[in-house]
Please model this.
Amino acid sequence: MHRSSIALLCLGFVRAILQNITVDDTLPDIVYGGRKFQCNTATPCDESTDELFNQSATLTSGSITFNFTGVAYYASLELLGVADIMLDGEVLAALNITTLSDTRTDYIFKTGLNNIPHTLSIVPAANSLTIIGLDQLIYTASLPDKKSHVGAIVGGVIAGVALILGLLLAALFARRRKLILRRNQRKSAVLRGITVARQNHAAGEEDAKELPTSS
Ligand SMILES: *[C@@H]1O[C@H](CO)[C@@H](O)[C@H](O)[C@H]1NC(C)=O
Ligand SMILES: *[C@@H]1O[C@H](CO)[C@@H](O)[C@H](O)[C@H]1NC(C)=O
Ligand SMILES: *[C@@H]1O[C@H](CO)[C@@H](O)[C@H](O)[C@H]1NC(C)=O
Model:
């Protein structure tokens, strides 16, 4: 039990660091379910390719699926039409963007997720003539902080010393209590002895009185 509490204390000192990982629209980590067209320097969709991450974006009328393990995601995309933003099969948002000037989609993000594998999917409604332009996906990975291992060791040592001190103190108190108990016992034994002796003495005097006189 003491050993496990030390382990728990050590674990408490191992913190995680959060790291944003950017995944470009061109990488195979992102799976496109339908037709796609790549906008890049060779085939620019407009003049602003320079503003895109890795100078590329992917236009698609199909679904986009992305698996990641982390605590947050941020999608950099533009969308015209109707689509569901889904995480792990659950609809997080139903988008319906009908005018080009409204394609602001910087609200497609979610933080505070459990640090487990997740599936993000952007699914256009059937027959909706939806077009998605994806530039990048960012996810926040939660990695164990190697630097804090020193902290964990120091914490563990401090906890260990505290535990040993505590055990020593407890042992000392137990010993003291035992000593006091034994002294009290000895004291009462002495008292008992005195009482018994006194009684015997008194009885002896009486016996003496009753002793038959020698004939
Ligand atoms: C990750 O990126 C998002 C969006 O740019 C930002 O809001 C967030 O603070 C970043 N998190 C970390 C740990 O850098
Ligand atoms: C940029 O895009 C190219 C393909 O066009 C790809 O090979 C490369 O890995 C991308 N770079 C990053 C940092 O994603
Ligand atoms: C999307 O919005 C338009 C008008 O803003 C509306 O006519 C249309 O029915 C909506 N579509 C869905 C699937 O909600």
Notes: The mean pLDDT is 82.
